[in-house]
Amino acid sequence: MARRSGRVLRTYPNLLILPLLGGIAGIAFVATLFGALYAGGVYDSGGVALYVALFAIYLVETLVASFFAAALVAATRAVFHGETPTVTDAMRQAWDHKWPLLVWSVIAAVVGVLIQAIESQDNIVAELLAGLFAVAWSVITYFVVPVIVFEDTSISGMFEESARTFKNTWGESIGAMGAINLVTFALVLVGALLGVVTFLVVPSGAGVAVAIVVGLSGIVLGLLIGKSLTGIAKTALYVYATEQTAPEFFEDMDFSKLGGDAGSQASRSGVGSRI
């Protein structure tokens, strides 16, 4: 799955621009807001003001990430339809779904604040419940962005469709996520090792600065590639689940084998029941 997603990325490297823009926008916002909160003493005051600030952070961060993820999904769908994706067209299609993305971001922000509030209870039971809730939430909403881009559905429908799609492809999704996470970790590790090698090779005067630049560049590139592979693979899985067909670049792959026999049977029966 990772190799075939990488094949898409090698053919259309401009897809990397979308997670890059999303990362820059998200970091700029968070850095600005955190600086303002720190200067205003909100962290020290706590209480309602802190949770309002957390809500704002979760909301904008989720909206920015979802917008560029939607653009990546749209661009990937163009590839699967035999078209040449462009950043401008992909962002235009994401903008066309701005209101569902905003609604999704508001709900995700509320859930994020609730999880944070549960975790702040400072007891192991609350932390365990918050962790279980976070995992369940991530599973239910795994395909929310593709649903928003591909389907014209209601607010409740986007969550139902996302959960149903994950249920129908749970083995494949877990297998793909695990493989791509390993690839991302390996790429990040290579980037960090490049920084270490640079530090050992470059003369001591400029070695630290050059090593930091090289290492951070390698790490960022690894994260961008991993983010792009995740978006491509998720789109391919969604197309497979909803259309019962392997998209372009994935024609020679048996999706049903990704999650093992149990996941394959569940996936085939689930997809078949929907067609």
Q: Any chance you could write out the topology, listing elements then pairs?
A:
Elements: H1 2-11, H2 17-40, H3 42-45, H4 47-80, H5 87-96, H6 98-119, H7 124-140, H8 144-150, H9 155-168, H10 170-201, H11 204-243, H12 260-274
Helix pairs in contact: 1-11, 2-4, 4-5, 4-6, 4-8, 4-11, 6-7, 8-9, 10-11
Q: How would you summarize what this structure contains?
A:
Helix content is 83%, strand content 0%.
Labels describing this entry:
12 helices, 275 residues, 2 domains, globular, mainly alpha, disordered C terminus
Task: Give structural notes.
The chain is 83% helix and 0% strand. The protein has two domains: 2-168, no CATH class; 170-268, no CATH class. The chain is built from twelve helices and no strands. With 275 residues, the protein is mostly helical. InterPro entries: DUF6159. Pfam families: DUF6159. The chain crosses the membrane at residues 12-38, 50-80, 101-118, 124-150, 174-200, 206-225.
Q: What global shape is seen? A: globular
Percent in helix: over 70%
What is the number of strand segments? 0
Mean pLDDT: 83
Keywords: Membrane, Transmembrane, Transmembrane helix
Protein name: DUF6159 family protein
Transmembrane segments: 12-38, 50-80, 101-118, 124-150, 174-200, 206-225
Organism: Halapricum hydrolyticum
